[in-house]
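2 proteins. here.
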Amino acid sequence: MTRVFLFFFLVSAGLVEAGSARLTAELMAEYRQEVQRWSMRLQEARTPEEQLKAWGDRPDSDKFGARVWEQLRTSLADEWILEFAPEFLESAPGFAMRERGGRVPARLLMQAVERYHLKSPRVGPLALALTVVPDPAVIDVVSKVGSSNPDEKVQGVAALAQALLLRRIGDDPENMKNRLTLLKEAIIKSADVRIGNTTLARLAESELYSIQRLSKGRVAPNLVGRDTAGRPVSLTALRGKIVVLVFWQSWMAEADRVVDILARFHQDNQGRPVELIGVAGVREEVLRNLIKKGAVPWRNIVDSDGALASQYQVVQMPKVFIIDEKGVIQHIGAPDSFMNLAVEGLLAEPAPAP
């Protein structure tokens, strides 16, 4: 903490050059254009070689994150960063969540919100973006935004952020009641607030659907599709197995690392009553060639139009649903060690009596 305060002192004293809102905007516009051009190349690739090369030539989110952070880190007390920090967190989460020189960028953003921006009318989008940060302290920061900010619309956005963060605590009745209360507050105060290309009301409705249909302990909605071999896939047909349902895209953050984790998981669970099913938001030709090259060895359903992701209210990828032998959701998260622990826990449970 002392280092953080020293850093802010050096910036305020002019001993460290402050960042530039103009340059930050240019960097973000440049990265969006790179991603758009890359996406077009991916769609236009026809041969297997072209497709694999395009898939591997994704813009470097870490490099983008480093360049933007150079601008943000020296201006954390300035209100202009509130315009850009949400996109920084969403576009470069891997960079933002890792320690850099003894400091984690996402944690510094949390501290800046708490110290400088609790009452800003522009802090709402950042409070919502902070929900991706895997730090227990983030819910306290977001709660303080809701209780301290005089702007009713910001209070509503903060209420939605709190409802999203309370997912992490569990699905006990009291927590569910708190989440529903926060969602009601969010809709009453901020229904028409624009969040990206949608509204807060729609995000709240999506979260309400998740509570009612996609929470731990609920029977997973049936998901039906065909894999790349043309074989039908449905969750109900997989009853009796543990299903690890993974929504993913080739252009998601840290795609290579996620694909490696899933490939190892698939290999480690061969011969066990565990079925890894990917729901891939990519063109079928691209997916076929990734499978042919051995990069994606698990079974996948093509979801290039996003219909299945919408059914499961998946906005940010990757996202994992672990479903037990009876079709009940037992874990929701990311492809990480908790996914493995959840599966091992289910495998260790005694078989039900006949």
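next one coming up
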Amino acid sequence: MSFTKQSRYLDNTMISTYKECPRKYLMRHVLGWTTDGGGQKPPALVFGSSWHAGMDQMWGAGKDESIENRVDLAMEGFRKQWEEDNYTFELSMEQQDDLGARTPGTAHEMFYSYSTQRDRMIRECTVLGIEQPMAIPFPGLDDTWYVGKLDKVVEYNGIHVLEHKTTTLYRIKGHFDNDYLESWNAASQVKGYQMMGSIHYPKLQDVWVDCSLVHKKVHDAFKFVPVAHEWSLLQEWITDTKRWIVAIQDETKEYEKYWNLEAGTFRRNDDNCYGKESKCPFVKICSTCSDPTKLSEVPAGY
């Protein structure tokens, strides 16, 4: 089975966006609007994607690279992504204050500590994949695919998926917020990665969520959260995800009958306009327009 022009595909981001707010899903994944053309992405998103880019370079470096060389390579990857997202690498004092802990300087300190702490693992493991694209036909749905990328797949006393995550949720005791760490055991994304990884790597043991704390003063807090779900929980994930995919597909078909929202499709979830890290990028549109599909052109800044 392979992709065709008629194939439908969804990833965790698309499904999570629909769960969060169907109207947001419409603007981002049906109308294709983004904020890339105007303004800047939220700092949390930019720092996270830049950290991922640095991790790709660090884990992709040769096993014999020194700690310092791995850090230099990681910072090159970080800087490239950081500047692609229209952020200035050399920051003024005012810019540093605005960004808080999420700065290139913090990243450099974190990369050094990370490279030091993970030195033995990086030297001894076998990297099987970096940003490895995955696609599986979704059970019970015709020509519908669940797609994604695995941050890293490594062999180190077994085969593991590494999923890099950054957080600013700091606690004095243990550095990390316990609820944050425990949340990964219930995360749909992790279950999906375990499912995809197990199909492509039958001997996969688990997913290691590679948590990194972003803090102005604490630069050495890293923790693996191993997650391995029993088959019954993965079956539950399949059932639940299938229902969400069907809901998205049905609502899209209904929208395509009229090409507007008069039938009540893609409703807004007003409770999710403002999150812990940032507000929805489309909140300005929703606050001034009841049906964005009727706009004659893409709003300024999108």
